[in-house]
Amino acid sequence: MTDISFGARLAAAITARGPLCVGIDPHPELLRSWDLPVCVDGLARFCDICVQAYAGFAVAKPQVAFFEAYGSAGFAVLERTMAALREAGVLVLADAKRGDIGSTMAAYAQAWAGDGPLAADAVTASPYLGFGSLRPLLDLAAANGRGVFVLAATSNPEGASVQRALVGGRTVAQSIVDDAAEVNRLAAPRPGSVGVVIGATLEQVPDVGELGGPVLVPGVGAQGGQPETLGGLGGARPGQLLPAVSREILRAGPDFAAVRRAGEKLRDEVAYLA
């Protein structure tokens, strides 16, 4: 728990260490390519290398699903990895994409934005049970100085039929951005701690100019998003965009120095966004 908002801590980290979110995605194929066993021991070694490579970067984003696949032992590795990243001066964004209603959403909030071992500096969340269903998470995150990145416009083709649907003259994705902007507007001070997620490869994106919070932009690098074309995405302002890169960096492993160099190269390529 901290008295400084996530929005303020993120802005300071971006200014000091660049606007890049480096991914920790221990996919089984990636473990094999690093000559690591596809088991908890391989998972732990993979994460140790990532922590060593990512020390001093602004934000790291563990993909929770790849830890959850190993059950309680995988979550134990995730807990240790998150703690080690913080010790290395890195903000931790847990890519958990949680979303539910009522007491269940409140329990997810306690897990990822409370005071427990899985609590991160920020967490991703799905609003597709209605933006209001996220209220327990938004409230607890704000109380604990944590952030929430809400899925708005994702790059998977299945999402388009929902996210681009028009309701009251706006796309659903735009309504999510607007709802997040309202939360940030009511909170003080700026920058806000509620961000949105917008895929880097989308041709049609919502307007984020009045969001008042950060925009996580996955899909840069191996997934086709080009670092040099991100400027002004959705009307974003300087320092607002946070490109997220995983495979483009991790395929340089298993040598931690090579992973770090790959991350530094991409950080340099997106430095103009700060």
Automatic annotation (TrEMBL):
Domain Orotidine 5'-phosphate decarboxylase: 19-262
Active site, per annotation: 97
Full protein name: Orotidine 5'-phosphate decarboxylase
Substrates-to-products reaction catalysed: orotidine 5'-phosphate + H(+) = UMP + CO2
InterPro entries recorded: Aldolase_TIM, OMPdecase_AS, OMPdecase_type-2, OMPdeCOase_dom, RibuloseP-bd_barrel
The entry's keywords: Decarboxylase, Lyase, Pyrimidine biosynthesis
Pfam families: OMPdecase
Annotated gene: pyrF
Pathway noted in the entry: Pyrimidine metabolism; UMP biosynthesis via de novo pathway; UMP from orotate: step 2/2
Protein's UniProt keywords contain Lyase: yes
HAMAP family, alphabetized: OMPdecase_type2
GO molecular function: orotidine-5'-phosphate decarboxylase activity
